[in-house]
Design brief:
Elements: E1 3-8, H1 16-29, E2 33-37, H2 40-46, E3 51-54, H3 81-94, E4 98-103, H4 105-127, H5 133-136, E5 143-148, H6 164-185, E6 188-193, H7 200-209, E7 213-215, H8 225-236, E8 241-246, H9 259-267, E9 278-282, H10 294-313, E10 321-326, E11 329-334, H11 335-350, H12 354-360, H13 363-366
Parallel strand pairs: 1-2, 1-4, 4-5, 5-10, 6-8, 6-9, 7-8
Antiparallel strand pairs: 2-3, 10-11
Helix pairs in contact: 1-10, 2-3, 3-4, 4-11, 6-7, 11-12
The structure holds adenosine-5'-diphosphate (ADP).
Length: 367
């Protein structure tokens, strides 16, 4: 019987449990044994009871659970070959050669490296006397498929990542609450949202809540933001103001824009200042928590099913793929191209090449 393992790695995101559930049940449904690797790559390196067989009922009720029930971790050892060698040893010892990893671009980079190195890791295990040539023969090839779990929606090549819709829904809910107090007291609120180098959460939350200003990393050349913000305020005579600022937002010089800077501008009491009573709200980890919304459960379920099919169909010659969402279709795409483009995007923002950044970003930004 073929053994398929699934793990979650890197930052947790709502919907990861739905993905694990879908993988476990699809694997069983397709006649395989299903395994979970607990605690991300740490579980692969340490093995033992961190690699467990899962049965149909073990994932009952997982659709609606936030976070990841099989745990996730940052694992230093996996960055180095000896750590990955231990990972290979534990996989072979458990008879697993098909692995589905749900994580961010870091986790998926590690996955690709692991697959590339696999044949030489197996050779080394035989040379070390851990296994005989006969024992490793069925495990000469490792098949890996990636699922993208991230609230930031920051991976190139997919329209959505598992968890982004839940984080967005939570942000909108929080901004609605803030809005009520802002208009009651005629106050300004600066709301900082997550997203790392991505402005997806900020743009979508801003649009969905009708925020007055949105600041994102990808399009800083749009605004000499201080001037524009002051001008709009004066012209419109606004009673309340909501500013949504992405944690990676930058000005046109490429400098990070902080919530404090925005607050200082809005609350400036000097002669030409706006003198608004301004508060900062940093949403922080509430954005990651809680039950996944319908779209993340759907995405995780459909992609989990596709991941099992892909990992079972893969041959030694197939490129490592990840499961993406493209124009509402679940598709397989080359993993490393997406990871490279994602890294290139972050670099483009860093080096202020915003035209390139927009090309690499989702179409909705580029258009
Ligand atoms: P994310 O997957 O959310 O981007 P990280 O970048 O922290 O999060 O990656 C999660 C884990 O993946 C790391 O702790 C490490 O074990 C593994 N990993 C990340 N990048 C690499 C890499 N270049 N080589 C090997 N393993 C990696």
């Amino acid at each position: 019987k073929k053994k398929v393992a699934v793990m979650t790695s890197g930052g947790d995101s709502p919907g990861m449990n739905a993905a694990v559930r879908a993988v476990v049940r699809t694997a069983i449904n397709m006649g395989c044994d299903a395994y979970c690797v607990y605690e991300g790559y740490e579980g692969l390196v340490r093995g033992g009871d961190l690699i467990r067989q899962m049965h149909w009922e073990d994932v009952r009720g997982w659709l609606s659970e936030g976070g990841t029930l099989i745990g996730t971790a940052r694992c230093k050892a996996f960055y180095e070959r000896p750590g990955r060698l231990l990972g290979a040893k534990n996989m072979v010892a458990n008879g697993i050669d098909a692995l589905i990893i749900c994580g961010g671009d870091g986790s998926l980079t590690g996955a690709d490296k692991f697959r590339q190195e696999w044949p030489s890791l197996i050779d080394e295990l035989v040379a070390n006397g851990d296994f005989t040539e006969d024992q490793v023969t069925p495990y000469r090839h490792l098949n890996i498929v990636g699922l993208v779990g991230s609230i930031d929606n920051d991976l190139s090549g997919t329209d959505a990542t598992i968890g982004c819709y839940s984080a967005l829904a939570r942000i909108c809910e929080m901004v609605d609450y803030i809005e009520a107090t802002a208009s009651s007291h005629s106050r300004a609120f600066v709301v900082e949202v997550m997203g790392r180098a991505s402005g997806w959460l900020a743009v979508n939350a801003g649009t969905a809540t009708g925020a007055d200003f949105v600041l994102i990393p990808e399009r800083p050349e749009e605004h000499d933001w201080k001037e524009k913000m002051s001008l709009v305020h004066r012209e419109m005579g606004k009673r309340k103001t909501i500013v949504i600022v992405a944690e990676g937002a930058r000005d046109k010089e490429g400098q990070k824009i902080t919530p404090t800077e925005i607050k200082d501008l809005l609350s400036d009491t000097s002669e030409n200042g706006l003198a608004l009573d301004t508060r900062i709200t940093t949403l922080g980890h509430v954005q990651r928590g809680g039950s996944p919304v319908h779209m993340d459960r759907m995405l995780a379920t459909l992609q989990g099913v596709e991941a099992v099919k892909a990992v079972l169909e893969a041959t030694p010659d197939t490129e490592t793929c990840f499961i993406a969402l493209e124009e509402n279709k679940i598709v397989r795409k080359p993993l490393m191209r997406a990871v490279k483009e994602t890294q290139e995007l972050a670099k483009a923002v860093e080096s202020k090449d915003f035209t390139r950044a927009l090309q690499l970003r989702d179409r909705e930004f580029a258009d």
